[in-house]
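For reference, the entry.
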Amino acid sequence: MRLPSSIVTASLAACSILALSASALAQQPDMTPEQRAQMMAEREARTQAELVSERPIAAYNSVWIEELTWMEVRDLLASGTNTAIIATGGMEQNGPYVATGKHNYVLQGTCEAIALELGNALCAPIMKLVPEGDIDEPSGHMRYPGTISLRQETFEAVLDDVASSLKAHGFEHIVFIGDSGGNVDGMRNTAAALNERWYDAYAHFIPEYYQYGGGDFLEQELGIVQTEDDGIHDSFGITALMMVVDPTVVRYEQRVAAGLAKINGVPITPLDETIEIGKQLMAYRTAVTVEKIRESIAKAGM
Protein backbone atom coordinates (compact mmCIF):
# COMPACT_ATOMS: atom_id res chain seq x y z
CA MET A 1 0.00 0.00 0.00
CA ARG A 2 1.38 3.41 -0.97
CA LEU A 3 1.78 5.96 1.76
CA PRO A 4 -0.44 9.02 1.31
CA SER A 5 1.50 11.92 -0.16
CA SER A 6 0.75 13.99 2.92
CA ILE A 7 2.59 11.48 5.11
CA VAL A 8 5.56 11.30 2.76
CA THR A 9 5.70 15.10 2.58
CA ALA A 10 5.45 15.39 6.34
CA SER A 11 8.30 12.94 6.78
CA LEU A 12 10.46 14.90 4.39
CA ALA A 13 9.56 18.12 6.13
CA ALA A 14 10.49 16.69 9.50
CA CYS A 15 13.89 15.71 8.16
CA SER A 16 14.31 19.21 6.76
CA ILE A 17 13.51 20.76 10.13
CA LEU A 18 16.07 18.60 11.90
CA ALA A 19 18.73 19.34 9.33
CA LEU A 20 18.11 23.07 9.28
CA SER A 21 17.61 23.61 12.98
CA ALA A 22 21.14 22.65 14.04
CA SER A 23 22.86 24.91 11.54
CA ALA A 24 20.40 27.75 12.12
CA LEU A 25 20.86 27.68 15.88
CA ALA A 26 24.63 27.53 15.52
CA GLN A 27 24.66 30.58 13.28
CA GLN A 28 22.21 32.57 15.39
CA PRO A 29 23.23 32.02 19.04
CA ASP A 30 21.67 35.30 20.25
CA MET A 31 18.19 34.70 18.87
CA THR A 32 15.29 34.45 21.26
CA PRO A 33 13.24 31.24 21.32
CA GLU A 34 10.42 33.09 19.58
CA GLN A 35 12.76 34.32 16.81
CA ARG A 36 14.15 30.85 16.33
CA ALA A 37 10.67 29.36 16.12
CA GLN A 38 9.64 31.97 13.57
CA MET A 39 12.75 31.36 11.46
CA MET A 40 12.16 27.61 11.46
CA ALA A 41 8.48 28.09 10.59
CA GLU A 42 9.45 30.27 7.64
CA ARG A 43 12.00 27.74 6.45
CA GLU A 44 9.43 24.97 6.79
CA ALA A 45 6.88 26.95 4.81
CA ARG A 46 9.40 27.44 2.01
CA THR A 47 10.26 23.73 2.04
CA GLN A 48 6.61 22.72 1.91
CA ALA A 49 6.00 25.05 -1.02
CA GLU A 50 9.05 23.71 -2.84
CA LEU A 51 8.03 20.08 -2.32
CA VAL A 52 4.75 20.63 -4.16
CA SER A 53 6.04 23.11 -6.76
CA GLU A 54 5.60 22.33 -10.44
CA ARG A 55 8.53 21.03 -12.43
CA PRO A 56 9.58 23.92 -14.71
CA ILE A 57 11.02 21.85 -17.59
CA ALA A 58 10.33 18.59 -19.37
CA ALA A 59 11.46 15.45 -17.58
CA TYR A 60 14.62 13.60 -18.54
CA ASN A 61 14.12 10.01 -19.65
CA SER A 62 16.17 7.69 -17.44
CA VAL A 63 15.68 4.84 -14.98
CA TRP A 64 18.76 5.83 -12.94
CA ILE A 65 17.85 7.81 -9.84
CA GLU A 66 21.24 9.55 -9.83
CA GLU A 67 20.53 10.94 -13.32
CA LEU A 68 17.14 12.37 -12.33
CA THR A 69 16.26 15.55 -10.48
CA TRP A 70 14.37 15.25 -7.21
CA MET A 71 11.29 16.62 -8.97
CA GLU A 72 11.52 13.95 -11.64
CA VAL A 73 11.76 11.23 -9.00
CA ARG A 74 8.83 12.75 -7.10
CA ASP A 75 6.67 12.85 -10.22
CA LEU A 76 7.55 9.28 -11.19
CA LEU A 77 6.56 8.12 -7.71
CA ALA A 78 3.26 9.97 -8.05
CA SER A 79 2.60 8.34 -11.43
CA GLY A 80 3.01 4.78 -10.12
CA THR A 81 6.74 4.03 -10.13
CA ASN A 82 6.84 2.12 -6.87
CA THR A 83 9.86 -0.19 -7.21
CA ALA A 84 13.54 0.57 -6.69
CA ILE A 85 16.36 -1.81 -7.57
CA ILE A 86 19.54 -1.90 -5.50
CA ALA A 87 22.20 -3.67 -7.57
CA THR A 88 25.43 -4.79 -5.90
CA GLY A 89 28.60 -5.31 -7.90
CA GLY A 90 32.19 -5.22 -6.71
CA MET A 91 35.79 -4.20 -7.30
CA GLU A 92 37.95 -7.29 -7.63
CA GLN A 93 40.64 -8.97 -9.69
CA ASN A 94 39.31 -10.50 -12.90
CA GLY A 95 42.37 -11.78 -14.69
CA PRO A 96 44.73 -9.89 -17.00
CA TYR A 97 42.14 -8.58 -19.47
CA VAL A 98 39.03 -7.53 -17.56
CA ALA A 99 38.67 -4.34 -15.50
CA THR A 100 38.29 -4.65 -11.73
CA GLY A 101 34.80 -3.16 -11.98
CA LYS A 102 33.53 -6.13 -14.04
CA HIS A 103 30.34 -6.65 -12.06
CA ASN A 104 29.53 -2.95 -12.05
CA TYR A 105 29.79 -2.70 -15.83
CA VAL A 106 27.50 -5.70 -16.26
CA LEU A 107 24.97 -4.09 -13.92
CA GLN A 108 24.96 -0.89 -15.97
CA GLY A 109 23.31 -2.89 -18.70
CA THR A 110 21.24 -5.40 -16.76
CA CYS A 111 19.74 -3.12 -14.09
CA GLU A 112 18.56 -0.68 -16.73
CA ALA A 113 17.08 -3.48 -18.83
CA ILE A 114 15.28 -4.96 -15.79
CA ALA A 115 13.84 -1.60 -14.76
CA LEU A 116 12.62 -0.89 -18.28
CA GLU A 117 11.00 -4.32 -18.56
CA LEU A 118 9.25 -3.92 -15.20
CA GLY A 119 7.92 -0.57 -16.37
CA ASN A 120 7.47 0.90 -12.89
CA ALA A 121 10.98 0.71 -11.47
CA LEU A 122 14.09 2.84 -11.04
CA CYS A 123 17.69 1.82 -10.38
CA ALA A 124 19.53 3.16 -7.36
CA PRO A 125 23.22 3.92 -7.92
CA ILE A 126 25.12 0.66 -8.29
CA MET A 127 26.76 -0.39 -5.02
CA LYS A 128 30.26 -0.79 -6.38
CA LEU A 129 31.96 -1.67 -3.10
CA VAL A 130 31.17 -5.01 -1.45
CA PRO A 131 32.90 -7.68 0.67
CA GLU A 132 35.87 -9.05 -1.28
CA GLY A 133 37.96 -10.67 1.44
CA ASP A 134 39.75 -9.77 4.65
CA ILE A 135 41.50 -6.41 4.64
CA ASP A 136 44.04 -6.40 7.49
CA GLU A 137 45.44 -9.78 6.49
CA PRO A 138 44.37 -9.77 2.84
CA SER A 139 42.54 -12.87 1.66
CA GLY A 140 40.63 -13.83 -1.46
CA HIS A 141 40.44 -11.09 -4.05
CA MET A 142 42.06 -8.67 -1.61
CA ARG A 143 45.42 -10.25 -2.35
CA TYR A 144 45.34 -8.53 -5.75
CA PRO A 145 45.94 -4.78 -6.26
CA GLY A 146 42.86 -2.78 -7.24
CA THR A 147 40.45 -4.79 -5.15
CA ILE A 148 38.45 -2.82 -2.58
CA SER A 149 36.61 -4.65 0.18
CA LEU A 150 33.98 -3.81 2.76
CA ARG A 151 33.48 -5.59 6.04
CA GLN A 152 30.28 -7.64 6.04
CA GLU A 153 28.69 -5.48 8.71
CA THR A 154 29.56 -2.34 6.73
CA PHE A 155 28.03 -3.79 3.57
CA GLU A 156 24.80 -4.72 5.31
CA ALA A 157 24.59 -1.35 7.06
CA VAL A 158 24.94 0.48 3.74
CA LEU A 159 22.33 -1.76 2.11
CA ASP A 160 19.97 -1.02 5.00
CA ASP A 161 20.52 2.75 4.78
CA VAL A 162 20.06 2.88 1.01
CA ALA A 163 16.90 0.77 1.12
CA SER A 164 15.50 2.77 4.03
CA SER A 165 16.18 6.02 2.19
CA LEU A 166 14.24 4.79 -0.82
CA LYS A 167 11.36 3.63 1.36
CA ALA A 168 11.24 7.01 3.10
CA HIS A 169 10.46 8.66 -0.23
CA GLY A 170 7.58 6.32 -1.03
CA PHE A 171 9.04 3.33 -2.88
CA GLU A 172 7.00 0.30 -1.83
CA HIS A 173 9.20 -2.49 -3.22
CA ILE A 174 12.96 -2.50 -2.76
CA VAL A 175 14.67 -5.18 -4.86
CA PHE A 176 18.17 -6.49 -4.18
CA ILE A 177 20.13 -8.11 -7.01
CA GLY A 178 23.82 -9.00 -6.96
CA ASP A 179 26.28 -9.78 -9.71
CA SER A 180 28.78 -11.48 -7.40
CA GLY A 181 28.39 -14.55 -5.23
CA GLY A 182 30.03 -12.88 -2.25
CA ASN A 183 27.15 -10.40 -2.02
CA VAL A 184 24.41 -12.99 -1.55
CA ASP A 185 24.46 -13.40 2.24
CA GLY A 186 24.48 -9.65 2.87
CA MET A 187 21.51 -9.01 0.60
CA ARG A 188 19.54 -11.92 2.04
CA ASN A 189 20.27 -10.85 5.62
CA THR A 190 19.38 -7.22 4.97
CA ALA A 191 16.14 -8.01 3.17
CA ALA A 192 15.06 -10.25 6.06
CA ALA A 193 15.93 -7.59 8.64
CA LEU A 194 14.06 -4.89 6.75
CA ASN A 195 10.95 -7.02 6.40
CA GLU A 196 11.05 -7.67 10.15
CA ARG A 197 10.54 -3.98 10.87
CA TRP A 198 8.72 -2.67 7.78
CA TYR A 199 4.95 -2.80 7.51
CA ASP A 200 4.31 -0.44 4.60
CA ALA A 201 7.00 -1.60 2.16
CA TYR A 202 8.74 -4.85 1.25
CA ALA A 203 12.34 -5.84 0.53
CA HIS A 204 12.90 -8.52 -2.10
CA PHE A 205 16.12 -10.49 -2.50
CA ILE A 206 16.24 -12.09 -5.95
CA PRO A 207 18.96 -14.80 -5.99
CA GLU A 208 17.95 -15.90 -9.49
CA TYR A 209 19.64 -12.83 -10.98
CA TYR A 210 22.98 -14.39 -10.04
CA GLN A 211 21.90 -18.00 -10.59
CA TYR A 212 20.53 -17.37 -14.06
CA GLY A 213 22.22 -20.26 -15.86
CA GLY A 214 24.05 -18.16 -18.42
CA GLY A 215 26.29 -21.03 -19.44
CA ASP A 216 23.31 -23.24 -20.16
CA PHE A 217 21.71 -20.50 -22.26
CA LEU A 218 24.89 -19.99 -24.27
CA GLU A 219 25.26 -23.70 -24.94
CA GLN A 220 21.65 -24.76 -25.45
CA GLU A 221 20.23 -21.68 -27.15
CA LEU A 222 23.23 -20.18 -28.92
CA GLY A 223 25.47 -23.21 -29.39
CA ILE A 224 28.47 -21.56 -27.75
CA VAL A 225 30.61 -24.02 -25.79
CA GLN A 226 33.63 -23.06 -23.74
CA THR A 227 35.98 -25.88 -24.66
CA GLU A 228 38.87 -24.82 -22.41
CA ASP A 229 39.47 -23.37 -18.97
CA ASP A 230 41.98 -20.54 -19.03
CA GLY A 231 42.16 -20.67 -15.24
CA ILE A 232 41.40 -16.98 -14.76
CA HIS A 233 38.46 -15.19 -13.18
CA ASP A 234 36.61 -14.63 -16.45
CA SER A 235 34.17 -16.29 -18.83
CA PHE A 236 32.82 -15.72 -22.31
CA GLY A 237 29.34 -14.85 -21.06
CA ILE A 238 30.53 -12.17 -18.63
CA THR A 239 32.91 -10.75 -21.23
CA ALA A 240 30.10 -10.54 -23.80
CA LEU A 241 27.82 -8.79 -21.29
CA MET A 242 30.55 -6.26 -20.51
CA MET A 243 31.16 -5.61 -24.19
CA VAL A 244 27.54 -4.55 -24.61
CA VAL A 245 28.31 -1.66 -22.26
CA ASP A 246 31.90 -0.88 -23.30
CA PRO A 247 34.38 -3.12 -25.19
CA THR A 248 37.33 -1.22 -23.74
CA VAL A 249 36.73 -2.69 -20.26
CA VAL A 250 37.69 -6.15 -21.57
CA ARG A 251 40.66 -4.63 -23.44
CA TYR A 252 39.24 -5.71 -26.78
CA GLU A 253 41.67 -3.86 -29.04
CA GLN A 254 44.72 -4.79 -26.97
CA ARG A 255 43.74 -8.46 -26.98
CA VAL A 256 43.21 -8.45 -30.73
CA ALA A 257 46.62 -6.85 -31.21
CA ALA A 258 48.27 -9.43 -28.94
CA GLY A 259 46.48 -12.40 -30.52
CA LEU A 260 44.63 -13.10 -27.25
CA ALA A 261 41.07 -12.25 -28.29
CA LYS A 262 39.45 -15.34 -26.82
CA ILE A 263 38.38 -16.72 -23.44
CA ASN A 264 38.07 -20.38 -22.48
CA GLY A 265 38.48 -21.39 -26.10
CA VAL A 266 35.80 -19.04 -27.46
CA PRO A 267 36.81 -16.08 -29.68
CA ILE A 268 35.49 -12.63 -28.73
CA THR A 269 35.86 -11.54 -32.34
CA PRO A 270 34.27 -10.19 -34.47
CA LEU A 271 33.30 -7.33 -32.15
CA ASP A 272 29.74 -6.86 -33.45
CA GLU A 273 28.94 -10.58 -33.20
CA THR A 274 30.09 -10.82 -29.59
CA ILE A 275 28.14 -7.70 -28.64
CA GLU A 276 25.04 -9.22 -30.23
CA ILE A 277 25.55 -12.41 -28.19
CA GLY A 278 25.92 -10.23 -25.10
CA LYS A 279 22.62 -8.52 -25.88
CA GLN A 280 20.85 -11.86 -26.23
CA LEU A 281 22.33 -13.05 -22.94
CA MET A 282 21.30 -9.80 -21.27
CA ALA A 283 17.75 -10.19 -22.58
CA TYR A 284 17.61 -13.74 -21.20
CA ARG A 285 18.99 -12.71 -17.83
CA THR A 286 16.54 -9.81 -17.70
CA ALA A 287 13.57 -12.06 -18.46
CA VAL A 288 14.53 -14.54 -15.71
CA THR A 289 15.00 -11.76 -13.14
CA VAL A 290 11.84 -9.83 -14.02
CA GLU A 291 9.77 -12.99 -13.71
CA LYS A 292 11.15 -13.66 -10.22
CA ILE A 293 10.69 -10.04 -9.13
CA ARG A 294 7.05 -10.11 -10.19
CA GLU A 295 6.52 -13.42 -8.39
CA SER A 296 8.07 -12.01 -5.22
CA ILE A 297 5.95 -8.86 -5.38
CA ALA A 298 2.82 -10.93 -5.89
CA LYS A 299 3.67 -13.04 -2.83
CA ALA A 300 4.21 -9.91 -0.77
CA GLY A 301 0.56 -8.98 -1.40
CA MET A 302 1.19 -5.25 -1.57
User: Anything to note?
Assistant: The chain has ten helices and six strands.
